[in-house]
């Protein structure tokens, strides 16, 4: 699958009909992964994500990370976040470019200024969590 289509974890068939949703955590446990080694996380929460990846990396046993938020590129998510664009306060920004390390296509650096392309921002908020100077906020 290439993504964005319904799958056993969504509770809908490819035809858009309601069906039974596979409980991925229960499936992993049934396959022998210890329950404490199955983490359900919000991938847009960087602290939670880092902790889960670190725990998985350090584990000597099978470890599964299941993300619970929909992809930011899904049409319904884009609509829901239409008014959640992020903006950089240029007075607080120290041009450290930490935000750009996330690889977000909305973040740009030109003429010594870091800025967010409003048309490309999907409002995920990852840049908000990365900025050490709290120079990024949601537009009001």
TrEMBL record:
<protein>
    <recommendedName>
        <fullName>4Fe-4S ferredoxin-type domain-containing protein</fullName>
    </recommendedName>
</protein>
<feature type="domain" description="4Fe-4S ferredoxin-type">
    <location>
        <begin position="84"/>
        <end position="105"/>
    </location>
</feature>
<dbReference type="Pfam" id="PF13237">
    <property type="entry name" value="Fer4_10"/>
</dbReference>
<dbReference type="InterPro" id="IPR017896">
    <property type="entry name" value="4Fe4S_Fe-S-bd"/>
</dbReference>
<dbReference type="InterPro" id="IPR017900">
    <property type="entry name" value="4Fe4S_Fe_S_CS"/>
</dbReference>
<feature type="domain" description="4Fe-4S ferredoxin-type">
    <location>
        <begin position="112"/>
        <end position="140"/>
    </location>
</feature>
């Amino acid at each position: 699958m290439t993504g964005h289509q319904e799958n056993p974890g969504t509770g809908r068939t490819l035809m858009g009909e309601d069906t039974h949703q596979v409980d991925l955590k229960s499936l992993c446990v049934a396959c022998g992964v210890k329950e404490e080694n199955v983490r359900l996380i919000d991938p847009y929460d960087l602290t939670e994500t880092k902790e889960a990846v670190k725990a998985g990396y350090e584990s000597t046993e099978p470890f599964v990370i299941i993300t619970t938020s929909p992809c930011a590129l899904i049409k319904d998510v884009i609509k829901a976040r239409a008014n959640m664009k992020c903006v950089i306060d240029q007075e607080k920004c120290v041009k450290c470019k930490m935000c750009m390390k996330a690889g977000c296509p909305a973040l740009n650096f030109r003429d010594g200024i870091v800025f967010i392309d409003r048309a490309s921002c999907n409002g995920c908020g990852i840049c908000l969590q990365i900025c050490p100077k709290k120079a990024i906020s949601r537009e009001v």
